[in-house]
Write a structure and sequence with these properties.
The protein is of the alpha+beta class. It has eight helices and 13 strands. Helices cover about 20% and strands about 15% of the residues. It binds iron/sulfur cluster and FE2/S2 (inorganic) cluster.
């Protein structure tokens, strides 16, 4: 008979969950889901050794373990701290954590340009979401922001070093996914930058994945650049038989035009399966793909706007934990207040012609 695995009980924001020893607080919180899971700008479950760089995942450990119930004196990085049996953790229920996270966002934004209106990452940028949730209304920073020499990364990838938050994800991706890391973070402190040899790893078939892991708009897809805002495009799951990767992708379409190809992501915004450069940059015709159907958008995301079919309600934990309603990035309504139409029945974007037609029919 197989031996039963011993599990640790950990309570996060008053919700108890059982996890295997060695699990980090962040992954235990992800098991609960929703807002109880701390935001993560550098940790990436598919990349070994990631995490511990950005401090956005800080939490308060109110009780170290059942055996030693003393609290931890300082906030800890939940992506790097493993749970103990009987541990009690506070995330959104801790004022210290909320305050610290606000400080972290302020630091991240010190050198990050506020160019969301022209940045291709807008609408799917984790820093944009984080600033909305935790940022202050204005910056107190009065000094000159960092500037960098421009690096040309070839025909496919655009680097905007000023937007980089030095999370190291692209470095780990090049190292572990493409197996050919020739770039890294050079210098330290204010001079640190993603640099030098990234140009040299661009001929690798899997280097395009650095675009998907970048939490901000520092690495973007040149073939999609300035073509459209993501919330005007329609994400569709599709596949092809590819001899280099799984061929399972997400197409970002406008009408019949494939504007962009990316890997599919999970509810934490992480890539499910790495895709190759050929699928990402060269298969831009609908005929290259077998379309599976509209992607399920399950985040409170601006990308959900206009796509009423297949939108999944995110798993909410805020109300249960804090008793207050969650702060949504946008309020997705079911019934149009102006036209009194059930939006879930619309098959496509809600244009005035569609409403006129429905009115005529009624
Ligand atoms: S370029 Fe993007 S992925 Fe790479 S370290 Fe900077 S923010 Fe992270
Ligand atoms: S996600 Fe934990 S430190 Fe960045």
């Amino acid at each position: 008979m197989s031996e039963q695995k011993q599990l640790f009980k950990v309570t996060i924001d008053n919700i108890t969950v059982e996890v295997e020893p060695g699990t980090t607080i962040l992954n235990a919180a992800r098991k609960i889901g929703g807002e109880v899971a701390p935001p993560a700008m550098c940790y990436y479950s598919k990349l070994k050794d990631s995490g511990g760089k950005c401090r956005t995942c800080l939490v308060e450990v109110a009780q170290g373990s059942a055996a030693d119930p003393r609290p931890m004196p300082k906030l800890v990085a939940s992506c790097r701290t493993t749970v103990m049996d009987g541990m009690v953790v506070k995330n959104i229920t801790s004022d210290r954590v909320i305050d610290a996270r606000k400080g972290v966002v302020e630091f991240l934004l010190i050198n990050h340009p506020l160019d969301c209106p022209v940045c291709d990452q807008a609408g799917e940028c984790h820093l944009q979401d984080l600033s909305y949730e935790h940022g202050a209304g204005a910056s107190r920073y009065e000094f000159k922001r960092r500037t960098f020499e421009k690096h040309n990364l070839g025909p496919y990838i655009q680097l905007h070093m000023t937007r980089c938050i030095l999370c190291y994800r692209c470095v780990y991706t090049a190292d572990q996914v493409s197996g050919e890391r020739r770039h890294g973070i050079l210098s330290r402190g204010d001079h640190a930058e993603i640099a030098t040899y990234i140009e040299k790893s661009l001929d690798n078939d899997f280097i395009g994945n650095v675009i998907d892991v970048c939490p901000v708009g520092a690495l973007t897809d040149k073939t999609f650049r300035f073509k459209n805002r993501v919330w005007f495009t329609k994400p569709v799951d599709a596949h092809c038989s590819c001899d280099k990767c799984s061929g399972n992708v997400q197409l970002w379409m406008r009408g019949d035009e494939v504007l962009r190809v990316t890997a599919r992501k999970d509810e934490w915004g992480e890539v499910k399966e790495w895709i190759c450069n050929t699928c990402r940059f060269e298969r831009k015709k609908v005929s290259d793909w077998v379309i599976e159907g509209p992607s399920k958008i399950d985040r409170h995301s601006v990308i959900s706007q206009g796509h009423y079919v297949g939108v999944q309600k995110p798993h909410e934990t805020v109300a249960k934990v804090t008793g207050r309603k969650p702060k949504l990035l946008m309020n997705i309504k079911n019934v149009s207040e102006v036209n009194q139409v059930d939006l879930s029945e619309l098959k496509g974007p809600a244009t005035s012609d569609v409403f006129k037609q429905i009115k005529k029919e009624n």
